[in-house]
């Protein structure tokens, strides 16, 4: 599936300037250092950066030709709607996360933001995912009927068989799927390559040097690795 200029068969890396589901303090500086890497998709979380700084960073990302995402780790309608309003204020291309609410979906549709909510029972921070695979697939189809763009699947935060969830969900849901969270090894990159979702996020693993090297080097390593796997 080609979306926003995505080319070829390789899943898109979404670089998240986050660790433990929160935006890192020096996110602006890190992006500035990494803006010339091969990653086109960038984002961060709704906490704890002040809104004016969020706007400044998203503006800079857009100036650099990047496609932007705000991922909101929230579960009540009030919190989710607050996060969605942040995405509108910041002019984000995508809103990732939130439990699904019609009010959030409507706000995104009205403002041209591509909404990719969670499915399943998501709780805590860092998040965990519970529920049945078949239930999550059914949930996704209901939300597609309401006009959502795709889904933020916390596959590797799943309390059961993460590989089977990722594989079955991507195969059964006719929409972009972003597999988000805890992709922290080449083994998991191999699984991502095999399952071939539209995109996936990496944040904390870069800060923990799971792919060895500077953040810039790790970003390019991951992009190159998947391109070769999917060639």
In a nutshell, what does this entry contain?
With 231 residues, this protein is an alpha/beta fold. The protein has helices at 27-34, 51-63, 77-90, 102-111, 133-145, 162-172, 186-195, 204-207, 215-229; strands at residues 12-16, 18-19, 22-23, 41-45, 67-72, 94-97, 114-116, 121-123, 128-130, 151-153, 177-179, 199-202.
Mean pLDDT: 96
Proportion of residues in extended strands: 15-25%
**How many domain units?**
1
Helix/strand/pairing category:
alpha/beta
Strand order of the largest sheet: 7-6-5-4-1-12-11-10
User: What would the CATH topology be?
Assistant: TIM Barrel
* CATH-assigned homologous superfamily: Aldolase class I
Helix and strand run: EEEHEHEHEHEEEHEHEHEHH
CATH architecture: Alpha-Beta Barrel
- The global form is globular
* N- to C-terminal distance: 15 Å
For the report, how would you describe the main beta sheet? 8 strands, parallel
Low-confidence stretches: none
**Portion in helices:** 40-55%
Your description of this structure?
By secondary structure, the chain is an alpha/beta fold. It is built from nine helices and twelve strands. Strands 7-6-5-4-1-12-11-10 form an eight-stranded parallel beta sheet. The radius of gyration is 16 Å and the shape is globular.
List keywords for this structure.
231 residues; TIM Barrel; eight-stranded parallel β-sheet; 9 helices; 19% strand; globular
Write the layout of secondary structure elements.
Layout: E1 12-16, E2 18-19, E3 22-23, H1 27-34, E4 41-45, H2 51-63, E5 67-72, H3 77-90, E6 94-97, H4 102-111, E7 114-116, E8 121-123, E9 128-130, H5 133-145, E10 151-153, H6 162-172, E11 177-179, H7 186-195, E12 199-202, H8 204-207, H9 215-229
Parallel strand pairs: 1-4, 1-12, 4-5, 5-6, 6-7, 10-11, 11-12
Antiparallel strand pairs: 2-3, 8-9
């Amino acid at each position: 599936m080609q979306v926003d200029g995505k080319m070829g068969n390789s899943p898109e890396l979404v670089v998240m300037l986050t660790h433990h589901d929160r935006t890192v303090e020096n996110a602006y500086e890190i992006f500035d250092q990494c803006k010339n890497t091969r990653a086109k998709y960038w984002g961060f979380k709704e906490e704890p950066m002040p809104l004016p700084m969020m706007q400044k960073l998203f503006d800079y990302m857009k100036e650099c030709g990047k496609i932007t995402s705000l991922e909101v780790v929230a579960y009540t309608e009030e919190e989710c709607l607050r996060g969605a309003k942040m995405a509108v204020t910041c002019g984000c291309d995508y809103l990732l996360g939130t439990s699904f609410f019609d009010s959030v979906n409507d706000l995104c549709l009205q403002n041209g933001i591509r909404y990719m909510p969670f499915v399943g029972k998501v709780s805590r921070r860092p998040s965990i995912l519970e529920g049945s695979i078949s239930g999550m697939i059914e949930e996704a189809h209901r939300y597609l009927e309401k006009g959502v763009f795709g889904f933020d699947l916390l596959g590797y935060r799943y309390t059961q068989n993460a590989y089977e969830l990722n594989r079955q969900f991507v195969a059964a849901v006719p929409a972009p799927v972003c597999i988000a969270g805890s992709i922290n090894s080449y083994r998991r990159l191999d699984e991502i390559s095999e399952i071939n979702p539209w995109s996936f996020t990496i944040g904390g693993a870069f800060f923990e040097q799971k792919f060895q090297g500077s953040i810039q080097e790790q970003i390019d390593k991951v992009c190159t690795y998947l391109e070769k796997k999917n060639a």
